[in-house]
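Tutorial handout. Part one gives the primary structure; part two gives the three-dimensional structure as C-alpha cells.
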Amino acid sequence: MTTGTDQRGAAEVAARTVQERWANFHRYGPWGLLGVGVVLSVATAHVVGMDRLDWYLFVPLSVAAVVLQLWWGRAMRTRPEPSRAGVLYYWVRWAIAFVGSLTNPFYVFYAACGYFDITRLVPARQIRPGLFAAIVVVAGSQSGGLPPDNSSGWILFGGLLAVNSVLVGFMGHINNKEQEAERVQIETIAELERTNTALQQAMDENAQLHTQLLVQAREAGVADERRRLAAEIHDTIAQGLAGIIAQLQVVANAPTLEVAREHLDRASGLARHSLGEARRSVHNLSPAALADATLPEALKKTVAEWAGRTGVRAEFTVTGTAEPLHDEIEASLLRIAEEALSNAARHAHATRLGVTLSFMAGEVTLDVRDDGRGFDPIALPARTGTAGFGLDGMRARAERLAGDVTVESEPGGGTAISARVPLVRHD
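Part two.
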C-alpha cells in the first residue's frame, strides 16, 4: 500500500527533476539560441543583403552577447530570482537581439529566449511589457525585418504581432494551469500525509486504550475472583469445617461406640465434600484448559466434554483466521463459553447446540446457539450484582474488555448468546 509519505516523496523527486532540466535550459539555452541566430545570420547574409554597416553592427553585438552570457553565467549562481541583475540581463539581451534583428531577421532566435525565462528574471509588473517587447522583435523578423517597407508590411507586422500575442498568452495560461495543478497535487499529498499521521496516532492511542482496558479488566477480574472465593469459602468450605468440628465434638461425648462411628462417618463425608469444593475453587481461579492449548483447541475440547456429559449433540466451528489472543481475552471467552454451556445444560433441554468462534477485523465473537425451549429475556429478573453467575457474569466479563453480550431467545425458539470483544493479539 502506497502511503502519503511515499507519494509526496515521488512528487518531490519528479518536481526536482523538472526543476533541474529547466535550470540546465536556462543556463545553456541562451547560448544555443545565440549560436543558431549568429550562424543563420552569417549563412543568409548575401540573401538578406547585409551591407557594411550591418556587419559593423552585427560583429560587436555578437561579441557583446557573448560577454553578456559569460557575465550572467557567473552572476546567476549567487543572485536571487528575480533580481536587479536579472532585470538588467533581460533588457540588455533584448536590446542586443532587437538591434541584431535589424541587421538580419534570423538574429531573432536570441530574442526568443525571453519567452522561456522572463518569469525568473524580472518582477511581476515587468512580465507583460517584457513579453510584448520580445513579441515585437519576433513578429518584426517574421514579417521580413523592422521597420516594414510599406503599408502592407505594417499590416503583416500587426497581424503577426497579434497572432504571437495570442499564442504567448495561451502558452502562459497553460503554464499557469499546470503550475496550479502541481501546487494542488503537492498540497493534497501533504494533506494525505497529515491524515495518515493522525490516523497512525489514533491507532497508537487505540492500542494504548486496549492495553489499559486489559489491565483494568485483569485488576477487576482479580477483585471479582477474590469476592467469589470469599463467598465460596464462607458458603462451602467454612461451613463444611464447622460441620466437621460439630461432629467431632459429638464423638467426644458419644455414649456408645456405634454413635461415635456414625458421627465419624459424617465428619469424613463432610471432609471429602469440603476437599472437593476446595479443588473446584482452585480450578476456577484460571482456566486450566488454556495452560497448554490455544483458545480454539480449548473450546473444542470443552464443547466435546460437555456433549459427552449431557448427551446433547454439540459442534464447534472456527471462522476467519485464528490468531493468538491476549491471555485476558482468551480466559474471558472461555469462561463465557463455559457459563453458556452450563446454562444450556441446566435450562435449555436442547437436542442440538453449536458454538462458533469468529475472528473478524478488529473483534472476536463467540456465539452459542441451541434449539432448546428458550425463554423471554425481558421477563428475566434484574441483575443481582453477582458477577460470577449466569448472564450477568457473562456480561460483566465482556464489558470489562470493552465488549458486550447479547441474548436472543423466545419461548420454544431456542437461545442464541453472542459475546463480542476487541481483537487484541498476544503480546
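Part three, for discussion. The first strand starts at residue 313 and ends at 319. The chain is about 70% helix and 10% strand.
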